[in-house]
Every structure is written in C-alpha cells, then in structure tokens.
C-alpha cells in the first residue's frame, strides 16, 4: 500500500519494504557463553520476603490547606474520636478548621525487621486537602494483611511538590497531596520466621529456566562435595542441610551465595513500538534470509517567479509565473541484501545496519522475519 504525505509543497509516497525468504535451513551455530553471575544476584530464598502495611491517620498543622470538614465527614469523625481518647468532649460541636487532612499511610516491612527498628512510610491524602506541606502525621497504627499491628508511624511529612494560587490563576508542581516520612515508623511486631532453624530451603530463580536451575544445583553439589541440591521446577531449586553439618544454615547460605553461575536464557526479542526500542538476547538466531528495504520518494517543489512590467510603463500587469521542480528517488541504489545464518547477535545487528535500516523500519523487518518463520526466538511487542 502506498501512502502520500503532504508537507508544504512536498509530497512523499513511501513503498513498504518487502521480504523474500531464501533459505529455511538453520545451520549449526556456536553457543554464546553467558557471563558468570553470583548466585545471590539471580535467586531469592523462599520465605524471605517483604510485607505490605497500611493504616489510616490524620495530618495536622496545615496552613488552611487541609480537608474541608463539611465535604469530608470522616475527617470530622476522626478528629472527634481522637480528642475523646485524649479526654476532650467535642460532641455537638462542628469543626470548621482546614488545618487537618485525612490520609492513608503505607509502608513495607522488610524481612527480618526486629522490634524497635525504623522503616520509611508514604503518606497520601484521601480527602480534598490541597497541600500537605508542613503537616505532622499523628501516631498511626500500620496493619498487615492479617489485621495485626506491626508498626506505628508518626512525624513530619516531607512533600516534594508545591501549589500556589492567586485570584486569576494557580500553579502546581509535583504532587503536593502526597509525601514521605524517612524512618517514620517503628516496628512493634516481628514476623515469625527463623531461617537458621530450617533443614530444607528453596531457592527461587528471578528468571525461571530449567537449564539455569540445573546449573545452580550442580554448582552447589560440587562445592559441598555431596548431593544435597536438586531442581524442582524451572523456578525452584531445593537445598537440604547435610547431616552432621557443624555450621548453621545461614553460614552455609553465605558460602553458597558467592558461587558464580552462568545463567541460561530463552531467545527473545522485545520491541517497544511507541519509543522504537529494540532489545535482543544473545541467543537470538536468524535463518538465512534475503531482505530488501526500499522507498519511493517523489518530491514536488514550487518556486514561483514574479513578472513585473517595465518601470514607468503604462501597460502591463504584475503576474506570477509558476515553476515546478519534480525529483524522483526510486531507491534503485538499495539492493537486495542477504543475511546469512546468524552466529552472534552482533552479526545480526551489523547485517541490518548494513542495509541502512533505522529503528522504526527494523521493528517492521523483525516482525516480518518472525512471520516468515526465519526467527528462532520469541517476539514480544510491548
């Protein structure tokens, strides 16, 4: 399909590239070796995880930028309940100040966080407050998924954004209705999990792969000199504590996590059509194909001339004499290129670059190669 674009007096018709599959036999290629990586960088220990906490609280001390009480009845109810716990009776009295805002407080409880340690918290307004700058979060219990209180947050809110307004306009930068309190919560309850008491642990791979799981198990067994580890599935490797092992399981893991593993990966090409980003893994292989990428460009430029009568002439009129220049580029200098069976990713990139292909056209070429069955890789379009 030809498409015509108009820009000023320039008309361009582009003819899409065409792809011819020449050879459909994949020749033997050499396997690219992965870069050795520490075991600790590619796995996590099952059971060692973070926990999400959430709570509801009040931010006070705002400069008339908090919730409008008449619009947010839950803010008024929270103020009255707080004051009653402090021995102040406010029943029947309407709160009209705008110095208080109802907020949701969230935090992440790290694994092995002990009582008394501090964690960061994030604050977000749930009412019609305009700015939390300068506010102070009152003591807020943070609950886990089981409904138990694991931390208590309190402190001054740091807001990155700001808002300013006048009679005829306003300006807002960032998000002034959310903020953060560094080390703003104190852990009150620990998650019961003792790693040193386990006799069997499971290692979870960040990128599940059967070959990588087998390499991890073999590396651990070779290091310990006994068969103690085996892959359970592409994402899990089981490690058993040896009988009579004098050190703790934690000390054994410290020795294991420094082992170097060569992770394997599936052949994959990831394409982001919005930004033109292409990421190809080192295992991508292309069968021998012939590719031509050509454009038909027709440029029409108008450079009119102005014809005027001679000076002091009684006859004659000013006239515009049209002049048109037409240039045609049929892409005859773009020849059919053959990409041999790719041995490395660099050769694939060099082959496409040799055709003068840009990122946008390269995306279409890779999609066409995959459609022709010549790409031995998974194609993922974001």
Automatic annotation (TrEMBL):
The basal body constitutes a major portion of the flagellar organelle and consists of four rings (L,P,S, and M) mounted on a central rod. It comes from Eilatimonas milleporae. Its main location: other. This is Flagellar P-ring protein. GO terms for biological process: bacterial-type flagellum-dependent cell motility. It is found in: Bacterial flagellum basal body. Assembles around the rod to form the L-ring and probably protects the motor/basal body from shearing forces during rotation. GO terms for cellular component: bacterial-type flagellum basal body, distal rod, P ring; outer membrane-bounded periplasmic space. Pfam families: FlgI.
